[in-house]
Amino acid sequence: MGPLVPQEIIGASWNLFIAFGIGIGFGFVLEQAGFSSSRKLAGMFYGYDTVVLKVFFTGAITAMLGLLFFSLFGWIDLSLIYVNPTFIWSAIVGGIIMGAGFIIGGFCPGTSVCAAAIGKIDAMVFIGGIVLGIFFFAEGYPLLKDFYMAGSFGPIKVSDVLGISGGVMAFLVIIAALVMFKLGELAEKKWPREEY
Amino acid sequence: MKTTYMNPYLAGVLLGLVLLMAFFFSGRGLGASGAVKSVVVSAVDIVAPEHTANSAYYSKYVGEGKSPMKSWLVFEMIGVLVGGFLSGALSGRLKWKVEHFPGITANRRLIFAAMGGILFGFGSQLGRGCTSGSALSGMASLSVAGFVSMMAIFGTAFVLAYFLRKNWI
After folding, report:
1. Contacts of A155 in chain B (CB under 8 A)
2. Which tens digits make up the pLDDT trace of A126-135?
3. Residue B3 covered by a domain
4. What is the pTM of this model?
């Protein structure tokens, strides 16, 4: 049955409308969770607020299990689901640069747009920074291209690399997440703070 | 602890369901930085169309029959603006402000926000997606790139947190 648009069960002309609707849900949930506050987001890295850890991993696991169960019930064809390809070196270095941007700037791109929507001026400045950063990458692309394309493995999955099923992989992620949630709860007790 | 925000585990489940719907309807995950890329490409294309036509990077997105603003991620991010605004309105959080740790000035916060944004923007292009597009959506589809991005982003932020502590605690 699914995914509906790639299989033309819903016309492609609806895709942008669907994107808009999904975006409303995405922005609403991010804001309700408190991701519109850089101080809450940064709290993750000092232990005083681990909302990022809890929301991020609960979200990833929910969608992961949803895909596995939908596939099991025959509701979705996983071979038609986009799996982002792995270019190992640019993924690692890009991730390191993004991590630095996260702790320096206090947002990531999605959360900064969500925060800008409720009037956070620091988030608007962060978005201005993203624009510049992307512009620098685009202009520097000829120099970066070889590194950007190096270490290509295609759309590989962790479960295939480890030689286990998707279900076992999801189970391991859930165990890891539960351990981290426990650590997060302990950290919040150790470093309490006021809500803002 | 009394909080006006949603329970984080409930919010996580809802976030996961939104992501699942993106996969179920459109066959793809969520994203954010890709929408900003579309804006940058479009802006440069308006200012310097010859440059974009000749550039190895921009030419992937512009030219005959291609319009970077008519993309899934652009419409999704317009939705994020609307959804974030609605949530803020419902919870009484609509307010112009520079949010920062009381121990630093608003100007210092803004300077660091700009620097962080530049790094995140650059890194998101090198890493083929940000926390939403690469890490979150990638993990849900069990992509190696998703797990690598997640570990690199959060790992680096943890390592650097000590040096940046005066900005936050």
Report:
1. 143
2. 999 999 999 9
3. no
4. 0.96
